[in-house]
Design brief:
- With 464 residues, this protein is α/β, with parallel strands linked by helices.
- It is 39% helix and 20% strand.
- The protein is built from 15 helices and 15 strands.
- It has helices at residues 13-26, 35-48, 82-89, 104-110, 148-179, 198-206, 248-254, 257-278, 293-296, 301-312, 332-345, 376-380, 386-402, 414-422, 439-446; strands at 52-58, 62-69, 75-77, 93-95, 118-125, 131-139, 210-219, 225-236, 240-242, 286-290, 319-324, 348-354, 371-374, 405-408, 427-428.
- The longest helix has 32 residues, at 148-179.
- The N and C termini lie far apart (66 Å).
Length: 464
């Protein structure tokens, strides 16, 4: 059987857009386990006497495992995946003995989660023939028993998966038909009310137009930079730098937030690695990445984060994941499971915008957060009277009792800076110290002796 090239050339954008549209139409991504799919992986494993079997689907940035038999795997980065080999081959891909293959190191990286010595993977196609995922079987021993008739049997099982997808797609289309056409409600301040469109977000991701800016988090007493918050921007070639509020709502609505969010985690980890290579002293610094509600509800989130950490080679303590109360409360059971999985990885967990949306004092002790971030709306009103000041003081004391750190967001004046230090708030961020800036600008800032920022001017304001 022919082997696909490992260095996959540029993907045809129109074909990939059509493939992703077909994938979205099935509604399969991030769905709970289903007996039909688990039965197929079990049959495949038993038929091949395999050590593991998986059914997976791939979007723009990740390979999500719908079903597995044997060693559990939830999610992997799309880059260097078996799926891309199958997609390039446009058909089955097999290796009977990885150790004897000319590029065995590359293959080992692809199957490291299964500890496999041989594998076979066949495409799972949509109703119109587009490859949405693959069915794979893995063996810990080299196998010379992979014959054409055996491959045909595996393809037959993959066709069963395709049939299940088509049934799902038809159910989804019937449901949408009953609801009637949706009215577009996303608007911007631009003259073109139809911009951006979902395709614009897709093209921006594919063409590398999204960038991360970083805002320093400092120790208030010493002004030492102890961390950074990563904030996404869209560097549009014609419209300039676009803030997140102009495109994140559409990304959430269309599901594009998942590949964009995955890119953000991967980009932040890559940048952390670069800073640590320049100066090992920076290994003590944490970079926080914001998670959307959609990302947080994914069963495979912890697996994806772990894969990115391994790929980048950074320590889990160098990555922080920030989530809001509103992304946790709607499904407490899922929240506890996801937070527990992330905690076991060793990443820092930060509750962002604390105090807004829900009253979380009654259950906060149940969640394994490391840091509470006081919402900027409370910080901005501290000098307006005793009540706003008491709210901030209560949050700081609550965090102290629960063993959490506190970061005050949105510090814009020297008076706010003074009050927070007097109340014992240890960390903060805001325009008073530094605005969000490019990775290159942060690199220069980190070269300050001891990473200590200069004393801010008393009269410095956010609008200055």
């Amino acid at each position: 059987m022919p082997q696909a090239e490992f260095e996959i050339e540029g993907v045809d954008r129109q074909q990939e857009d059509a493939r992703l549209a077909a994938l979205v139409a099935t509604g399969i991504l991030d769905t709970p386990p289903e007996p039909a799919y688990d039965t197929i992986t079990r049959l495949a494993a038993e038929y091949f006497h395999a050590d593991a079997a998986t059914i997976c689907f791939a979007d723009a940035s990740r390979v999500w495992i719908k079903s597995h038999w044997g060693q559990a795997t939830r999610e992997l980065p799309r880059k260097d995946s078996i799926f891309d080999l199958v997609l390039a081959e446009d058909g089955p891909f097999m290796v009977t003995d990885i150790s004897a293959h000319p590029q065995h190191e590359r293959l080992l990286m692809r199957v490291r989660c299964h500890n496999a010595a041989s594998f076979v993977s066949v495409p799972v196609r949509s109703f119109d023939g587009r490859i949405l995922g693959c069915l794979s079987v893995f063996s810990k021993k080299p196998s010379q028993m992979i014959q054409p008739e055996v491959i045909r049997s595996l393809v037959g099982l993959a066709d069963m998966v395709s049939s299940q997808l088509e049934l799902r797609r038809l159910r989804n289309s019937l449901t949408e038909g009953r609801k009637g056409p949706r009215r577009a409600h996303h608007t911007t301040e631009s003259a073109n009310q139809d911009w951006p469109r979902p395709a614009d977000l897709r093209h921006a991701l594919e063409r590398g137009q999204f960038v991360l800016y970083y805002q320093p988090e400092i120790e208030l007493v010493t002004r030492k930079i102890i961390g950074l918050e990563a904030l996404i921007r869209w560097a549009h070639p014609e419209r300039g730098l676009i803030p997140p509020m102009d495109f994140i709502p559409l990304a959430e609505e269309t599901g594009m937030i998942l590949p964009i969010g995955d890119w953000g985690i991967e980009e932040a980890c890559t940048q952390i690695q670069k800073w640590c290579i320049e100066d090992p002293f920076h290994a003590s610094m944490r970079v926080g990445v914001n998670l959307s509600a959609s990302q947080f509800q994914r069963v495979g989130l912890a697996d994806h984060v772990e894969a990115v950490l391994v790929q980048s080679g950074i320590s889990s303590r160098q990555l922080g994941l920030e989530m809001t109360e509103s992304s946790i409360i709607p499904n407490m059971g899922t929240a506890m499971g996801v937070l527990g999985s992330l905690r076991r990885l060793g990443v820092s967990l930060l509750m962002d915008d604390f105090g807004t949306g829900y009253s979380s004092l009654s259950y906060l002790h149940s969640f394994p957060f490391d840091v509470l971030k006081i919402d900027r709306s409370f910080v901005s009103r501290m000098n307006e009277g005793d009540q706003p000041l008491q709210i901030v003081r209560t949050i700081i004391e609550l965090a102290r009792v629960l063993g959490m750190d506190v970061v005050a967001e949105g510090i814009e004046t020297h008076e706010q800076y003074r009050l927070l230090r007097e109340m014992g708030c240890r960390y903060g961020q805001g325009f008073l110290f530094a605005r969000p800036m490019s990775a290159e600008a942060v690199t220069q800032l980190l070269r300050l002796p001891g990473r200590v920022l200069p004393e801010p001017e008393p009269a410095k304001l956010a609008c200055a």
